[in-house]
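Problem: given the chain below (549 residues), write out its structure.
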Amino acid sequence: MAAIFYDPDHYSTAGPRLMGRNAAGESFLRAYFRHGRAETHWAYVDTESHGASFRQAVAAAGRAEPVRIAGRADLRDLKQAGVLYKPDPTLPVEAWRRAMFGDASWSLCGITHATSSARVMDSIAELLTAPLQPWDALICTSEAVKGNVSRVLDAAADHLARRLGTRPAPLLQLPVIPLGIHTDDHAFDAGARAAARRGLGADDDTIVVLYLGRLSAHAKAHPLAMYRALQMASKGLAAGQRVMLVECGWFSSDATARAFARAAALVCPGVTLRHLDGRQAEARDQAWAAADIFCSLADNFQESFGLVPIEAMAAGLPVVVSDWSGYRESVRDGIDGLLIPTLIPPPGTGEVFAIRHAVGIDDYDAYSGYAGAHVAVDIDACAHAFSTLFASADLRRRMGAAGKARARAVYDWQVIIPRYEALWAEQDAIRLAHPVGRNLSPWPARLDPFHAFEGYASRTLDAESRFVLTDADLASAIARLGDYLGLGIVKYTLAVSLPKAGLEAILTAVAAAPRTTGQIAARFPSGAAGLVIRSVVFLLKLGLIRIKA
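Solution.
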């Protein structure tokens, strides 16, 4: 069982900026409710509204099991859930928070999406120094991503070896589990195909090539290789045939849309171009149904896995994709489609991009764009791949059928969700075999302030300090307490102090006779000593009690 870190933005494609992580999160949550075997649905949230949203999501999915919500103030409740799942790789801060309650209190599980941003790379490097444990895991969505994570960890370990004379190894697990899809969403019959093609103006002699996703040259896939390869392949078409490229996606701005249109007009004038708004489900369905071939020549380091080629396979389309990152692991060259070779400069030639990003000359968009501009996709190989598929409808059908079977057998959420649950069960078993303990200084950067700043005060309260009332009688002290607690400059502290009745109990105790700190604490339930002692000093601060000389 796992508590899902739930922020609606992570699990929705309805926001203004649709990114791959949003689509993956939305798809995961739907699959988790559909295929998961949880007997209680746990969520860990930042706000009450997020908790209410999670309850609504559970109900909308038709799940009738109990729902438990843990907020920041209920963090220790995660012990009951056993595992906290975050839809991103930012585990270090959660490990430090957990350390306040004991490293073995629950397990942590994160997942990689794009790993090239500064925030994510920093989080990965911090995995070595944060209190991550063998019962924690960062899911890598592909072997390529795992290689990237391992290189960052190796570099961080090298730094620590130079700095401290020891080279630590990461303790957490790095399992490889791909993202999943709902394959049934991509099944289209002959009628849907015919209607979709009519809507695009594609007749039986038109070969429809589809690109679906963000339309960004600097952050997703530079279009020139695809445009050029399609133009080259179109010259070998049979008489009467034509090629239509459908770009089903979204641009970040009107200027980007104009730049793409100008590039297409210049580079592939022999190809009919259609644009559909990929933010709309109806447009995506039309694109999938109408297409004969799918193409994505990803050439950017933001692309870590690639859901869309798998969705294309589920739709029964042969795919032409770059031999890049996770694409090469999902698409079998010559079986489900064709992989197009890619090439990058050797290590040591890209430090200028890292430096410019590190010192703030370039933001993340510029960093991605400059690095991606130096990734080359083999245009001749791509043109040959298109020509091969254009020439054989039978090959397109065979590759499409192979891809469809693979998508269902390997990438359907019905297969992937049990792998998540098996991982969580394994994490739980490893954790439960470890004794629960708590460090004296669990988070060095978040020490008990009365320890961290101990030297600021003249003295520290001890157990033998004796207290008496400042007022002449108990009634006057309690009345003054009530007046003070009505002040805005005082009542806010009740959130971390004893309630009014508890404070009155302390006043009552010291009114009867001078009481030591230890004697006052002994009058309250065990386990509340820290709260009681703080409350004693709080009453001392208000001048309601004083230390007897």
